[in-house]
């Protein structure tokens, strides 16, 4: 059994999609990041970086195995299941390339854009423009790739696709018709039952990552980005 510690975030959803696609036995252990669950001693014992998601595999290498960082988790699950990574070295490297594009580009830049646009206490035009423009640039790169290839790695559906879709949910709604390659690919992914199940992980608080949370307070900001986040633990 694999326990997935997380909530309604793109990072947790990408792991949930992979677990479903790989038909691995798993359960969600809810972590409420707005309440500060990620700052408790129990969670910090799993991940000293106080970020979700984390997996705990009771049947891992040598027994109980704990892993964090989504790129590492996806690669681990792919190896464990033997699926969703090409066997050919060149094709496998391309899949790694697009996985790294997500974890180093799509994830951080989309996160900063949402932060400064929706959640920052003060709206700074420079920061909003900087990250909004970078998100648009990354979307153009992604759309070009998906206009010439069926999946990010080429003709094979891989963990790179699973990693990327959860971050595009809001943009697909807000910018319908602007990125036809991405829309074609997203529609194909959402036809997969495992993807739909994974995207619903922790859905009760989906608004926390979609830029529409009502009642967002200074205490939430302190937990996520302020004094409580940066206090020694």
Essential attributes:
single chain, alpha+beta, Glutaredoxin, Glutathione S-transferase Yfyf (Class Pi), Chain A, domain 2, 4-stranded mixed sheet
What would a concise description of this structure say?
This is GST-like protein. The chain has 233 residues and is α+β, with helices and mostly antiparallel strands.
Give an overview of the whole structure.
With 233 residues, the protein is of the alpha+beta class. It has 2 domains: 2-83 and 216-230, 3-Layer(aba) Sandwich (Glutaredoxin), CATH 3.40.30.10; 89-196, Up-down Bundle (Glutathione S-transferase Yfyf (Class Pi), Chain A, domain 2), CATH 1.20.1050.10. The chain is built from 12 helices and 4 strands; from the N terminus they run βαβαββαααααααααα. It has a 4-stranded mixed β-sheet, covered by helices on one side. This is GST-like protein. Residues 88-210 form the GST C-terminal domain.
Main sheet: which strands, in order across?
2-1-3-4
How many distinct folded domains?
2
> How would you classify the helix and strand content by structural class?
alpha+beta
Number of helices: 12
Reported CATH architecture of the largest domain: Up-down Bundle
Mean pLDDT: 93
Estimate percent helicity.
Answer: 40-55%
**CATH topology annotation of the largest domain:** Glutathione S-transferase Yfyf (Class Pi), Chain A, domain 2
- Strand tally, please? 4
How would a crystallographer describe the biggest sheet? 4 strands, mixed
The rounded Rg comes to 18 Å
Task: Give the SSE order as H and E letters.
Answer: EHEHEEHHHHHHHHHH
Give the oligomeric state.
single chain
Taken as a percent bin, the fraction of beta residues is: 5-15%
Cα distance, first to last residue? 29 Å
